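Session log. Operator J.P. requested a structure for one protein chain; no other inputs attached. Running the standard single-chain path with token output.
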Amino acid sequence: MNQENFNELFERYLKGNCTPAELELFFQFVRDKNNESILLDLMHQHELDADLRSEEFRQQMQHAFDKTDETLAKELSQLPPKTKTVYLKWIPYAAAGILLVGTTFFGWQRWQEHGLKEKAPKTVNTKIDHQAEMTLPSGEVILLASDIKSPKLLLEKDQVQLVQKSGSELEIRGNGSGQIVHELLELNVFKGKRMQISFADKSSVMLNSTSRFKFSMEFDAHERKTELLGEGYFEVAHNPQKPFFVKTPTQLVQVYGTKFNIREYPDENLASTALFEGKVSVRKRQGDSYGKADFLTPGKKIILAKDRPVNEKVEIKNDKEIRGWITGRRYYNGVALKTILRDLSHDFDILIDWDKIPDLRFQGTIPQDFALNQIIELINQTANIKLYKKDNLITIQ
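Structure written below.
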């Protein structure tokens, strides 16, 4: 069956018009891992994200799920007892629109809604009272509360103020006389938290969980330097006379006024920079220096291997996958389960038995305000696996 024929079959499936023979053909097609790319393209065409899907499409999917339930129930009644056990796990999730494709699984709308009836906690951080800690140039450490009732002055120096506007937002106010440009502050964001910093030049950065960021309250007269370990989304004000730099252990990013995302956690083998607007150049560290500049255009992402001289430029197919953590929902598109668990390890105080994690891939969204047990339950119900949490260790069967 070619893609055009399957597209027609998929339309019949959505409308609930498949005959039993066509429905069996449909499931044969989606179970074949060689058809994964066709399914991904088809899902993108229909915008299966809950935020974008039309009411008409949701109704079509609901009707299709009901027909699938009916067919699977008939099949179940004719199966031997041992096989029934496997199918019993399948039926509620077939109704949720979950299709297994080799080692890949896809979560659709009803899967996303599972668990939403439960009241999700407002925070996923074990440090409930604090968002981050700030290390001042003097070495003094300040804990930043997650909930403040009014703006709080953290530091004032040379007519420049560092203010905590809210639990998750810092702002630099005023212009100094160039006396404090070399006095670096370090912000360490706690697990499950995010922090935004707004600079005096109208630039800003949103920092993801467990990120560390070094900056000055006042930039140099000729350049704006920052350092990052973790993940940050930047919106940099254009100033050709004063370029903006972000240095990480693996790359040096020079910014020309733009919107971009940098990810480089110490426990991950890859570092990346994704560009959404404007222009940046990326130089990979080579010993004590940096290599040739790679220039990115909007819609492009560069991936750097930390342990190999490999740079790869790819097209950003869906910017939600990269920027979803800013909006409060993580979006995954054919992403390895290990990657998902790696994200969870930044949000929760957990250890993971990496040797036992299978090569499963995932499509769907996970709200960031879900508790860990809710997320584990979603994964367990979506795939034929069992994640266990004992104390703070997560392993799998």
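Operator note: The two ends are 35 Å apart (CA to CA).
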